[in-house]
Amino acid sequence: RTAIERVHAGAREAGRDPDEIGIGLIFHTVMSDDPDEIRATARSMAAGYYEYSPALFEIPGLPWDGPSVEELKKQVYPDFHHAPDLVESGNLVSFLDEETADSFALFGSADDIAGQLRAAIEAVGRVDIVVPHPVPMPVPGAPIPRSTPPVLAGVDYKTWFAAEVIPRL
Question: Are 30 and 21 in contact (CB under 8 A)?
């Protein structure tokens, strides 16, 4: 909400109608079904946002109660969003609480993800585009690494998302 308020204030300052400003939401969407992998990957996504913009933690009052991100970056390459092993990088920031991790990624079942999307869209108001970016990034066209209904066995991420999440929105 704070970001939307700032966008609208900036539009007004520029003499523009805030309703004419398109709003897009990008969400890292954790592809695993495994609760431990989900938690660690979500923490890595949160750390990635902190790494590039600590204000994303400061404004809503989310805690960073661990080592400095500069120290942690020495152990993660190229960064917390793109590390080859997101579980490993997420375990480096195990001090992040669930609320913080949950604030920066979508995860869980198709019902869970649809509910998280609905809540985000309702909090923002009008949204023009939503980009549900999968993590870890799958090979285009490759089967997704999660359980699926038998009718969707072997489908890729975009097919799964279109068939399982979109109808629930």
Answer: no
Judge if pTM exceeds 0.85: yes
Tokens of 41: 């990957």
Name the strand (E) or helix (H) holding 133: strand 129-135
Q: What is the mean pLDDT of each run of 10 residues along the chain (169 residues)?
A: 89 96 94 94 98 95 96 96 97 97 95 96 91 91 90 94 96
Q: Give the three-class secondary structure for 24.
A: strand
Distance CA 156, CA 143 (A): 4
Q: Does residue 46 contact residue 96 with C-beta atoms inside 8 Å?
A: yes
Which H or E element spans position 137?
Answer: none
